[in-house]
Every structure is written in C-alpha cells, then in structure tokens.
Amino acid sequence: MFGDEKTLSNVQNILAKQEADRSSFIAGDLGSGLDVSLKYMMQLYSDTYAVTLDTMNGTARCTTTSEASGESSSNCIEGNGSAESERTENQSEKGIAGIPFLHLPIQVHLHILSYLNASDICRLSATCQQCQSICADELLWRDVLKKEKSSWTELGNTSNPALYEDVNSDLGYKEIYMRCNPHCARQEQFDILSIPRFLWSFIPHKAPKVVMFGPGLDSDTSKIVRKLIGNDESGIFQYQGMFPASQPGVGTGFNISMNNKAQLGLITLYSGTKRDRTNVNIPNATRADRNKLLRPTAASNNPDGDETDLKYEPIPAVRDLCSGTDAFIFVVDSSASVEELPEGRPELFAMMSERWTPNKAPLLILSCVPDCESSKIPCVDVAEQLAMHRINRTWKMFDANVSTLSGVVEGITWLLEATNRR
Predict the structure, then answer these.
(1) Strand partners, 310
(2) Are 133 and 162 within 8 A, CB to CB?
(3) Which of 82, 105, 237, 261 is the most exposed place for a label (fewest CB within 10 A)?
C-alpha cells in the first residue's frame, strides 16, 4: 500500500509543499503542528480514508472504509497525542483498524516530531523500539540542536558545538546536543562559595590575580568595571583598595571581594584612550591596529590559528603581566552587530597565546549587554565569531547583563572555582 507509485507521488508533492507551509506554523505549538500534519495525512490517503478535523475541540477523526464489505471503523486522535478507538461490531471480525501512528510514512513522523523539544522527543523514544528508532534520526537532532542552541546562556570549552564540527567528530547530533546543552550538564556537587562566612575565615586561600580586557571595555558595557569595584546597590562586590603595578605602567588593579568572602585582584587593561580608539589619522586602521596593548608581528612565527588573528602580539610589559596572571576575563559587547565581533579576535588570540600565558589559567568570557532593553547576540554565535573552538585552554562563556549583574556573578564564581581546582 505504501510503495505504489500513486502514494509515492503524493508524498513527494506534500514534501515539496512543506517548505511553503512551514512559515505559517506557530513555533512550539504542538496543536497547530498536529493540525497541519493531519491535513497532510488527509491529502496522502484521500482515496482510502475520510479525515474530519475539529480544530475547535482539538480533535481529528480518521475513518477507513473497506472496499470489500463497505464496513467502516474510526479512530479519534486527541490534540494531546492520545487515541481513543471507536470500534464497530464487525471491526473485530474483519480486522479493520484506524490509522495507526506508527504506520504513517517516516516523513510524516519527522514532520510531527519537528514541533517537539528535545525533552519530549526523549520521552517518546522510551515508549517502544519503533519510536526509539524514529526519534534517533540524525536530521531530526540536527534541527533540534540548531533550533535550541540559540537559547543557551552559557558555553564552555567542552560544550561548544563548533568544536565537534571542526574536528569532524564521530559523535551524532544527539550526543553533541547532550554534551553541549547546559541543562544536561552535570551540576557541581560542591560550591566553595556556599561555605559560611565564619568557616571561610579559617580556610587558607590566596586571592587570584585576574586580568580583564576586551572590546567590551571600550563600549557601553564598560560600566561593568564600576559595578565590580563596589559601585553597585546590590552590595555583591566590595572594594578593598588598590595594589601597585607589577610592571612599569601596567598592572595597577583593585582588590575586591564577592559576598564578603572570596577575594581577587582585578587588573583592567584598556586598548587605549577614547582619542586613540577614534583616531582617524591611520587610514583603514582596524581596532587591533589602534590597540595600545598590541604590536604587529610576523604571522608565520605563530603556528596556531590563521594569519589574520596572529598578526599581533602583546607588548613586552603586557606579556610579562600575562605570565604571572592566574585567570583572565574577556569582555565582549553582545549588543553590537555580528560583523563587529571578529574585531576583538586578534586581541583575544594574542593575549591567550601559550608562549607567554600559562595554559592552566582559565578564561571567562562575559557576553554583555548594557541593560535589559538591549537586544543580544546568542552566546553560541558570539563563540563562533570569536573562533573559541581554537582556544586551547579551560574557558567558559556566560550571557551577562551589566545593569543587573546577571551572569556576572555566576561567571566569576565559576572562575574562582576553576582557579582553585588548578
């Protein structure tokens, strides 16, 4: 029945029409998706089945007619996916049944499942072996990964989808989704900052030296520095004083504490003054060309990365500072356009080179927006534009809001824990 030429022709016509109809679907609305899918079923089996849709009640009735005896039976498919069979007296004798879901073509299965999220697909796969086989389809999980990764608010060096694509991993899209989705990641069993303040005073610990840099310090998100040194009503960060520069002209910073427990020495490195950043005397100059922290170098001397990202290296004073730094924070303005994000990549690669920066020093990337009203670029796209899959060290990216410090606290907490685990 399913292999004759007429059925195959109908399936091809339906699939060709699918892309045109997809724009009218409501994303995430299973009822709408099921309603349209049943319309496909009605076209596919119009010669054999009579399909009646009741969109007001969210039900659909599919009636099959026996050509030999003229007897009929029907199944009522509810909008939530459950089925109630209405059998006639002769149905058991003739063996006539309604349209079983598993007897539909695989294209219809995948079309219906495309409106489910990953959690619902996993629940469906646990019902039977045939559903498990359908739900393991690679194209289905490729679309799920593409659809849901834009909503992730954090990303790491082991949970970056671009990493697995870059190395041509043998993992399927489902395995990549499970590894990269932050909701599927195993939570830390112990949070060092959850220790009571009284007990914290008995624990010997050294305040790590953290260097903060990046293009986000030259834009509207630069207010994050004032928030971290205690100019915040929430009182999460407290200013403890300044410490002198470790290198001539470079390295002056602030001692700050978080929640009156964890302490760190924060050093901020700006690419230059506002006048330097807007200098028009250098024709066709990029941000890296105007960056006072960098200097041009021969790209062939660095074996890592492509030539564009490796044309610069830190000035000697900054290189000496990086060699004695415990951790780094790279601030990027995710409210800017996507085209502007790669401009910060030369600075990132120059500072994170293993020739002068210890590989064990963790890197925190704060993908910041200045306030709640600003639109933001998903952190997955930010990581792709910055080519984070080429950074060979422990790193993690968080979506952050400068005005509320959302994501900033979580990011610095992770950074302190990563520094203590070294």
Answers:
(1) none
(2) no
(3) 82
Judge contact between 220 and 370, C-beta under 8 A: yes
290 to 122, 180, 293: CA distances (angstroms): 51, 36, 9
What span, in angstroms and rounded, lies between the C-alpha atoms of 316 and 298?
16
CA-CA distances (angstroms) from residue 241 to 141, 208, 227, 254, 326?
Answer: 51, 15, 15, 6, 19
Report the helix count and the strand count for the chain, using DSSP H and E.
17, 14
Q: Identify the weakest region by mean pLDDT among 14-23, 85-94, 382-391.
A: 85-94
Structure tokens at 413: 């907490």
Mean pLDDT of 186-194: 56
Q: Where are the beta strands (DSSP E) in 22-97?
A: 49-54, 59-65, 72-78, 83-86
Nearest of 209, 269, 275, 265 to residue 239 by alpha carbon: 265
Instruction: Determine the Cα angle at 140 with ends 135 and 141, to 5°.
Output: 90
Beta-strand relationship, 209-213 and 327-333? parallel
* Residues 6+ positions from 237 with CB-CB distance below 8 Å: 227, 228, 229, 230, 256, 257, 258
CA 141, CA 147: separation in Å to the nearest integer?
10
In angstroms, the CA 326 to CA 277 distance is: 28
8 A C-beta contact, residue 138 and residue 107: no
